[in-house]
Amino acid sequence: MVQVRTAGVLAALAIMGSLVLLAATGAQAETRRAFVLGIQRYGDPDIQNLTRADNDAADIASDLQEVGFDKKNITLATDVRTRDEFDKKFQAFLKTVDEGDDVFFFFSGHGTGIEASNKNYLLLGSLKSLKTYTRARLLDADRRDDIIALKMPAFESQYDADEIPKDGVSVADIIHAIAGRKPAAAFVVLDACRSLPPATADIRTLKRSATSGSRLLPNDDLPTGFLTLYSASYGETAIESFGPTDKRRNSLFTEVLRQEMQRPGQTLPQLAERARLVVRAYAAKGGFEQDPEYFDNLAAADDFTLVGSVGAERFPLPQQQCEGAQQDWEQISQQPARETLERHRRRFQDCPTAELARRALVDLISSPVGSSFTATPLDRNIDDCDRLAAADIDNARPPEVPGVSLGKLDFDAAIPACQKSIARNPRLARFLYDYGRAQQAAANSMRPDDPARQQTLLGAYAAFKDAADRGYIASLYSLATVFDYAEARNPDQTQDQANKDLTKAADQGFPAAMYELGLRYKKGLFGIQPDFAEAYDWMGKAAEAGSVAAMVDVAESLWYGQGVSPDPRRAVEWAERAADAGSVDAKVDLGLFYFYGYKIVDDNGDIDDAKSVLSDDSRALLWFGRAALASNARAQYNLAIMMEAGDGLPIPQPEIAARYYRLAAHGGFEDAEIDLAERLRSGRILTSPENGANEAVDLLRRALSQGSARGATYLAEIYRNGEFGVMKDPLKAMQYAYQAIKLSAEADPTTEDGNPFFEADAGILLAEMAVNGQANDINGRPLLDEDEVDRLQKFYGTINPDIGKVEVRKLEVPLGCNGYYSRHATLWVWDWGRRVSPTEPQFRSIERQTGCYDNATLRRTLIASFLLAKKTKVPFADLIYQQIKEARDTVDGDTAAGRHD
Known about the structure:
- The chain has three domains: about 30-130 and about 165-300, Rossmann fold, CATH 3.40.50.1460; about 335-495; about 620-890, Tetratricopeptide repeat domain (Serine Threonine Protein Phosphatase 5, Tetratricopeptide repeat, Alpha Horseshoe).
- The chain is about 50% helix and about 5% strand.
- The protein has 33 helices and twelve strands.
- GO terms for molecular function: cysteine-type endopeptidase activity.
């Protein structure tokens, strides 16, 4: 791969978004038919028109043709006004469906759900609004807006019963009509409803409710062979646009669907789950919440794929379940956080360290990191129960009592001490609370299969309840959380009751409860639906009450606009408060805030200085340095990047950068592990004697144990080529490559592993091995059939027959951010069998991650170059390289001639 820096040149260059889809597997020969519907214009002035529904429908229809759907088997309908119009088109489509066909139904537009009948409706263009419906039923004298608004609730039930069925189409009716044709499989996709809130509302700050967004309800009676995918959960607003700078063609959900449907070998449930993960992650990154949901009854069609396999199911990577578990635990236990602990439990669920991670999670909930409450010891006698078991987060404890975290509580000594204290003073609720904590600590030290554990937990719960009933607020918090991560069931408490107890503690101003409740609303934990606005409210209260962890969260919410309008300046202020209180996470955030900067633009297009934060490399370097001193691997990695580039420094410092790369990598930060391994492979950093000749391989294996797709791909290359003393092993190389594809499909799309290039990179390696005769068994027979090889080249990378490989070039390009914080990004160019440029899915990913959407010129130029390369049969990478060279020569010539524009 050749790297070409083009920061100033690619401003003269610049893909169309498309997809490929639904190619049948070798075993699937059914006819595939699609009905694609987009409703963008609504006649009633009180129903907001959409702007992208027509594009959504047209692009999906085009994508289906691109992958083998016959045009005559696709019905595209837009601007459908009435129920009669819909029925005519849909019935004509149904007549073409034969038994055993596969059916794809797609809708983009407004929709709603009627709770009284538990029915979903797709809304057509002639729909009247509730306001119009109410106005028509009032006397002329009452038809004023203020009176109509007061009367609307009284007519809502009648409106739902009369108007919605008249000018809407029941989803259940659509599904059962398709089922009547007896298809082999049916995929029903509903991108609705997307604009129910008032046009002037800031969706970020809306509290989630049944009327705040999509009201589509799930289907309880799906026929066999069906999967229904909704773009948003009940009560959410499906995002059409992230704001005025977001000028993309499609809604968030449809764009994600188009990209994710092209993955070879992916079943419908896997596709739905991936779409849910990506939409949720991109929405959160942009400060919104949207969580698609799906329901299926596939039965015999549960292995149905839209695009055929490339052989992954035959080449699983044999791994020891606990390989790397101990090393991972040793690193994350140094600075435990929920995200890393939960990741460890998922990855190593059957390993001994998973139990250690579970116990650490209980400790974090019981003594949230970052509480600023401390006791001032006085020269007085301290009761043994208080001394041994008082909570460090309980600000109602006596001022002379320091408090102890749950993980450091000596329960063997505390239990009898508290029993004595309770006997001496049975009216003091605090001793009951302390006693409950001692029992909770004891239970947390036991293995989940220990028969005494359940009774000990129930004993803790009873003590907490007794104390809570006597008005002890801290006990309400522990009462609500004692069974969280306990892997035990409480027959005396439902999750709903636990959340009510937590809310009671938060309402009474208990900081840990406010923080925990905010976290549950933010992440959708323990039965609470995600609600960023509600989360921000609780986090703000906890931060004001002194919770340092909440201060960090408030800063990040203000920066990314999660539940609140973005305000970078206030974000920095909160992060500085948290950093001053000792938060290492806040120091890392401040480094990132100052590194990127964030310019807020007002309605006139001017920068709002009062809210904006300018990029400042010196300050970024300072904050990263402070966090690095606390052994934070992420900070060490960012410090290495800046020192290597010389950002914020008089000159680059490559030697110091190398030291920080190594510290971050051996500290367990995945990006650093990958970067350091690649530097070792390329010789940019020398192998350290104390780490051995296999340092790069060890780092990549470590990254793989963390679920890194890049780690798997680079290991595949090492086993393919035979590097670092590793013998060539084509089979193992293939296994690692397929593992990379799998991990990429599971990765958070806002991380490096979620970059679509890295999935393609693994596919390219497989395609090259197959075409060059490296993917053969010991008898020389190909391990992949022709269809699988064809799909690898179509969906991942086309081999240049002259050199027997896929030519790939790396470009560094500037991003247009419309006044927001500016960035550069990495793009990769190569050839594949799709009609869309491979840079386009990368742009979709990059733009969603950064919020930098002003790249239309660059994208169109790269599309044109890709199409020209196809037409002239010139490798795309070579053509781009030549265009860049010509642009540079032109710029150099103009400069020499005195032109500087």
